[in-house]
Write a structure and sequence with these properties.
Blueprint lengths: L2 H14 L4 H14 L6 H24 L4 H11 L1 H30 L5 H24 L8 H17 L4 H15 L8 H23 L2
Helix pairs in contact: 1-5, 2-3, 3-5, 3-6, 3-7, 3-8, 4-5, 5-6, 5-9, 6-7, 6-8, 6-9, 8-9
């Protein structure tokens, strides 16, 4: 089975199992509470992007735990443990990106000043925060951290750190949008996208390596 087929399978599993509902509804509810018509588009896009870090991390947990053990064993026998786990991570990231794109589109439609700069900055922030959330989710859940007793609080702490610590791609891009809304001009930190890609790639490589080594 190809990686594309496996990713589609995990997306379908995520939808059928309804494990996307909790993070998806949390994102929609918080967006409804935090964004209203006439809000500055840059500020609203920053809020939307920031939410995507915990939401995507939650989707990763949903994706890597959605499959029953027997079904996963059959899939691993057919496609290999490396591709099976990687496809679950990809499915979660795509689900987070879909939510982010929908949220950004709504922000640009109802917000004020939703022009080209706001759209470009919002797209950048959405991509960076989805990748960051996917990176955190990969290393704070199965198989790296198997027990939910430790995985959930560890993931929450890591998500707070990547949003608040200066130098983090998510922190930098969200801060840039907020400052742009305050001062009327956006200086987009384009370095954050390759930074987030490298962060996600490293986290995913580590998670896949652990999955192969532990046989999960």
């Amino acid at each position: 089975m190809t990686l594309r087929m496996l990713t589609r399978y995990h997306l379908e599993l995520l939808l059928r199992s309804q494990r996307w509902l909790a993070p998806g509804l949390a994102y929609l509810v918080l967006m409804g509470l935090g964004v209203s018509g006439g809000d500055d588009a840059l500020s609203a896009a920053a809020f939307s992007a920031g939410l995507l870090v915990p939401v995507t991390g939650w989707l990763v947990r949903s994706a890597v735990t959605a499959e029953p053990a027997q079904s996963r064993a059959c899939l691993v026998a057919a496609a290999g443990r490396r591709r099976v786990h990687l496809s679950a991570l990809l499915a979660a990231a795509l689900a987070g990106l879909a939510l982010g794109v929908a949220g950004l589109a709504a922000v640009l439609l109802v917000g004020s000043g939703g022009g080209g700069a706001a759209a470009a900055g919002g797209v950048l922030a959405t991509l960076v925060c989805v990748l960051t959330g996917a990176a955190v989710g990969a290393v704070c859940n199965r198989p790296v951290v198997a027990s939910a007793q430790y995985a959930v609080p560890l993931a929450l702490g890591a998500m707070v750190l990547v949003l608040l610590v200066p130098g983090s791609p998510a922190n930098a891009v969200v801060r840039a949008l907020v400052l742009g809304a305050r001062h009327g001009g956006l200086s987009a930190p384009w370095w954050t996208l390759p930074g987030a890609v490298l962060l996600a790639a490293a986290a995913w490589w580590a998670a896949v390596a652990v999955a192969v080594r532990r046989g999960e």
